């Protein structure tokens, strides 16, 4: 019965994604569990959330809820938690914060309950003359903090903490200005799985966290994202550890006046809370005296797929002769994919659609698809920043040059077509390189950085698999039957599916079984 219900929900989700043209977003929504897809589609429909924002925020929330209770074995002794650093990027008013808060509402609700317990314990402790051990506040979400207080919060809640900041550039700017880079060093160490220590002035005993699990998620506007690229975070490796989300379309969805929106949103929120609470209920290895995490390995098929995927990248990387041409960000892909695979496996388990005994190949494939999406977003951001940062005259010169050229060609084109001096041309080339619109292939030779080609190359490397309902031959008959029904009986276009709720889809599937 459960498989039948999941099958009906899958059909429902695929038809809704087809009708809503979710494929245009580029986000691989279909790799998430069916129950989660349904929640996301409802929230996108009734709250006007961007699919990319709400889905990614939910992945982050699952990572935080899981914390250090479960880890993934990547290779040999190399293990990792599911901790993620994420930044949602978009123009003002695009709706970055509301989906973030919706995804984290169950965790904030739990934090509030822990705060009320702490209040009661503090009152009892004071009433007893402050005798005995002083109560400590356990919480997960932090927004305003110092490096010391962050580690103290993590010490009190060893499972996990998350830095959740609405405008995250303010945090990064203050990190360099007021903490001498201490916070950044902590974040670099925590992401890599290293132990953290801090000695407090008022305590001789240092705070030590052997296996930190610190997540970051925040938002920023497109006009501010360039600040992150100019603070030295690329050089120290922090940028390589961050997953970015920037929707392909900057357009807002129009509001629709529907009486049932509030009810439908509430139902979706309850379903999401139930799923996330199941993740929060997962515990450490309770048979051990101390908190020992469960370590999930990939099964044979998943490991073979994961290794083959990475080894293809290794072969290409090994063909690069110039060390400066090696993309340091790509070297973090195995860790990102492994963490996403762990999160997907846990999310499938919490949705009642899989087990939690090992990481299977479906979770690994889903993680690779998600990682590809995040890298495509990063590519769009780099293109946006590059074009925004560079002055017009150098870009005009670049448009007149071929994809690859030498210094002599650039000088000739600059003199003849822009009427500028050799010195000015050389300054233009330096500016184009600084803006990452151009790179040196070797001494005296340059090549354009073609961001659109990078993105298309990433897409072409994807394993061919059904992306939408009409791509799947097993579902094609049912999908076309439903879409034809929509055209003839519920309107002139499948766009009417946007106002249909999930209950109707279930009814449709039941009546035609």
Main features:
single chain, 513 residues, alpha/beta, 3-stranded mixed β-sheet, 13 strands, 53% helix, disordered C terminus
Q: What does this molecule look like?
A:
The model is unreliable at 462-470 and 489-513 (pLDDT under 50). The chain has 18 helices and 13 strands. The chain is 53% helix and 11% strand. The chain has 513 residues and is α/β, with parallel strands linked by helices. The strands form 4 sheets. A 5-stranded parallel beta sheet has the order 4-5-8-3-9, sandwiched between helices. Strands 2-1-10 form a 3-stranded mixed beta sheet, covered by helices on one side. α3 (51-66) packs parallel to α4 (97-127). The protein starts with a helix and ends with a helix. β6 (196-198) and β7 form a beta hairpin. It is globular.
């Amino acid at each position: 019965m459960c498989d039948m219900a999941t099958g009906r929900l899958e059909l429902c989700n695929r038809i809704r994604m087809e009708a809503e043209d979710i494929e245009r977003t580029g986000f691989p929504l279909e790799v998430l569990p069916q129950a989660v897809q349904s929640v996301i589609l409802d929230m996108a429909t009734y709250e006007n959330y961007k699919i990319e924002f709400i889905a990614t925020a939910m992945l982050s929330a699952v990572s935080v809820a899981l914390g250090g209770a479960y880890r993934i074995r990547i290779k040999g002794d190399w293990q990792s938690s599911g901790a993620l650093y994420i930044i949602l990027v978009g123009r003002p008013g695009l709706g970055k914060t509301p989906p973030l808060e919706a995804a984290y509402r169950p965790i904030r609700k739990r934090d509030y309950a822990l705060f009320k317990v702490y209040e009661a314990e503090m009152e009892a402790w004071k009433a007893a003359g402050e005798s005995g051990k002083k109560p400590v506040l356990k919480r997960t979400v932090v927004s305003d903090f110092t490096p010391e207080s962050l580690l103290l919060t993590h010490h009190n809640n060893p499972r996990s903490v998350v830095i959740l900041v609405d405008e995250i550039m303010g945090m990064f700017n203050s990190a360099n200005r007021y903490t001498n880079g201490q916070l950044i060093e902590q974040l670099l160490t925590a992401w890599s799985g290293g132990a953290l220590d801090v000695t407090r002035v008022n305590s001789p005993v240092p705070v030590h966290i052997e296996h930190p699990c610190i997540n970051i998620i925040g938002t920023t506007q497109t006009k501010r994202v360039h600040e992150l690229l100019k603070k030295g975070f690329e050089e120290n490796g922090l940028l390589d550890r961050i997953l970015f989300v920037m929707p392909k379309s900057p357009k807002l969805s129009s509001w629709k006046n529907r009486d049932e929106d509030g009810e439908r949103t509430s139902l979706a929120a309850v379903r999401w809370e139930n799923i996330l609470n199941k993740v929060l209920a997962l515990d450490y290895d309770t048979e051990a005296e101390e908190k020992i995490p469960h370590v999930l390995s990939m099964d044979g098929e998943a490991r073979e797929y994961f290794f083959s995927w990475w080894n293809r990248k290794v072969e290409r990387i090994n063909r690069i002769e110039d060390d400066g041409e090696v993309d340091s960000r790509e070297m973090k892909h195995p860790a990102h994919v492994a963490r996403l695979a762990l999160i997907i496996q846990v999310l499938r388990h919490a949705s009642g659609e899989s087990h939690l005994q090992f990481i299977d190949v479906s979770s690994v494939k889903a993680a690779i698809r998600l990682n590809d999406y995040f890298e495509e977003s990063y590519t769009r951001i780099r293109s946006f920043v590059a074009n925004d940062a560079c002055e017009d005259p150098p870009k005009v010169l670049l448009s007149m040059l071929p994809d690859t050229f030498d210094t002599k060609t650039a000088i000739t084109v600059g003199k003849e077509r822009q009427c500028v001096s050799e010195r000015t041309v050389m300054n233009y080339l330096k500016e184009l390189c600084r803006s990452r619109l151009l790179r040196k292939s070797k001494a005296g030779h340059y090549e354009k950085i073609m961001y659109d080609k990078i993105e298309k190359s990433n897409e072409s490397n994807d394993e061919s698999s059904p992306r939408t309902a009409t791509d799947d031959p097993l579902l094609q008959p049912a999908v076309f039957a439903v879409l034809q029904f929509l055209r003839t009986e519920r309107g002139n276009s499948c766009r009417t599916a946007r106002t249909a709720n999930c209950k109707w889809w279930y009814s449709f599937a039941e009546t035609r079984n």
